[in-house]
Amino acid sequence: MSRNPDAVAPPAFGNTVACLAAAQLLAWGALYYTFSAFVLPMRDTLGWSKSAIMGAFTLGLAVWGAASYGAGAAIDRGHGRAVMTGGTVLAGLGFGVWSQAGRIELLYVAWALLGMAMAMCLYEPAFSVVTRRFPTRYGSAITWLTLVGGFASTLSFPVTLWLIGAFGWRPALAVIGAVLLAVAAPLNAWALRGSDPPRPPRAADVADDATLHEALRHSAFWLLAATFMLYSVVSATFWAHVMPAFASKGTSQGDALAVLMWIGPSQVIGRLVFLGAGKRWSARTLGLVVFAAMPLSLLLFALAGGLWVLLVFAVLFGAANGLVTIVRGHVVPTYFGHAHVGRISGVLSVLSLVPRAVGPIAGAWMLLVVPGYRELLLMLAALAGLAWGAFVWAGAPSRRAAVTGPA
Prior knowledge:
The protein is mainly alpha-helical.
């Protein structure tokens, strides 16, 4: 007799969050951070140009943005387990296809699959799943997911480069795909057994909350959209080019790893410091600090002449990058209320995810017309400065709310 999966008791809160957090660590490390480590080995082996290789990552980011709304709608219909588990399975298969790429078309097919996987199993769907499953404890769940996920960049670069050095880039991709299939997918499947609890009734007093239509008519919405779009473009471009950028500075691979390994812990430390000392900061105050730190950190990277300056960059960039997640999660309810936060956040996500797809390949194109990576990094710092300016121009929210949101 077949067993109804909804009749299975879901795991306890701690077990669910622990498994999802471990899966997030693996998924982020594989899907978002490893690409840059494969650019130079693929170019040297296959003779493809950087811009052609970066185009695959660009396609993946575009598919991620385009598929995010559909993944969220499926989760809202109660299919969170299928979405998260299916996403990690698709990711494993995508790495398998990538490992066999001998023609550029197959690389693009692999990254179309990986872009779909990102929409199904990274932070946004995970946040939606825990919010549905733990409506009174989702804040704590999101905090732990981001704390553990913050170590993805720290672990992915040394592990990936070791795999490439020990076995070659094709076997390294196959190993990563196997880990996603054998570890990450079962973690998501086990953590999300059973059905979600009944949704709590909405609060009656939502008269001051903006609808999606009202938010779209507000200049603050479009300025916030510009803020996160510019940040996303800068972040995607930086991570896609980070290893070649280190190489262009004459930084050894060992020193580059030493710098990059500080970014993940700095993300986590920034979140922990905020949790301990900054809970009463408003979303706007935190955003002003975070978006000011981003251009400063990139400026340091561009002009750095020594290892200690690069380490300062890593700490500053990591802390700011970690806190952006907190700002992003709370800025919509702070500015527009809670009644329609899902729809407003969804549109904001599409407006930021889709444009950032052009970042990696645009960066490769810019390298054809600028002297080198120093100038490209200065341009990224300028774009990050524009993101801060857009956030300042958005002004203070008309409704006052703590960044920690509802209890």
